[in-house]
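My hope is that you will study the record closing this message with an eye to the fold:
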Amino acid sequence: MKPVVQLLIFLVFCFGIKAQTALDWSDLERGISWKKSTSKLTYPGFLEANFSDKLTDLEGKEVSLIGFLLVLDGKQSIYMLSKNPMASCFFCGNGGPETISEIAFVKKPSFVMDDLITVTGVLRLNRDDPLRCYYLIEEAEGFGL
């Protein structure tokens, strides 16, 4: 066996290195459906999310997703990852809310608007908060491509 393979096996068993599940935007697009909210506590017209078993099983687990960074405020503290760059993202009418994910970075990233990056973090699914995205990635770290 090659020394590099032996080293990787050693690291996995000794240090518990874990791999995250790689998500694709098609997983997010196919993994959600909506129903009109019947709760009087939500905004009129808010759609409650129903998530696929695959995404429900991944909730609370580490995932990775490649997309375009969107910076949504002047302080650079509100971030989203988008299937499309800003000029053609969900907010501009190209795609639905399943083509963006809210990102909570562990530390402020050095990336700028529209950088294509990989984000890894813990997947959370939003079923009922109209002020948040349907997909959230918390404890996130970003890596440039």
The chain has one domain: 18-144. Helices lie at 3-15, 25-30, 53-58. Residues 52 and 100 are 17 Å apart (CA to CA). The domain at 18-144 is CATH 2.40.50.870 (OB fold (Dihydrolipoamide Acetyltransferase, E2P)).
